[in-house]
Specification:
- The protein is of the alpha+beta class.
- 15% of the residues lie in helices and 32% in strands.
- The protein has 4 helices and 8 strands, in the order βαβββαββαβαβ.
- The protein has helices spanning 13-16, 78-85, 123-133, 170-173, and strands at 2-10, 21-29, 32-40, 50-54, 87-91, 115-122, 145-149, 175-183.
- Strands 5-4-7-8-1-2-3-6 form an 8-stranded antiparallel beta sheet.
- Strand 2 (21-29) and strand 3 (32-40) form a beta hairpin.
- It binds copper (II) ion (CU).
- Copper (II) ion binds next to strand 4 and strand 7.
Length: 184
Amino acid sequence: MKIYQANIVPLNADAIGTAAHGTALFTINGDQLTINIEMFDTPANLQHWEHFHGFPDGQPAEIATAAQDVNHDGFVDLPETGAVSGTTMVPFDAAPHEMNVPNDNYPVSDDKGYFAYTKVVPLAALDAKFKETFNDSELELDKRVIYIHGVTDDVDLPDTVAGAVGHYSTHVTLPIAVGKIVAL
Ligand SMILES: [Cu+2]
């Protein structure tokens, strides 16, 4: 059995008015990857995209901080995280092993901004899909970071905030918390 965890810290807290934080636990046991994510103080009553991000070439990803706001608009948007965190890889949605990122099957926070997510993933299927997508790369969870996204539509985002994905707006993709995944 292999266990990984992440301490998830706020990102964009001052700009969005809430400091989202939580923990993630990844347990690999045989052919199963069990994912447990618990988040507090996220924007309430809202679906939150969540994924691990990383570099397909195996470079270790690091968490974005306010230093990644390179255009100084007050927000670290999704494209700005790329320099240190790489690209979106695996969604923590209803079917992570399908690696279909843009969808409406992510967890929804309650009226206190809390949510918990648990998913048991068939590891062989995830591994195969990951290799197909990222040039035979290994999952290498300890080189990845977890991102939680999403603010309510009433948060005023300047036009300089980028990162819309298909018909999903920058409100959906704005990062609100991030954590580096480490092996225990
Ligand atoms: Cu993400």
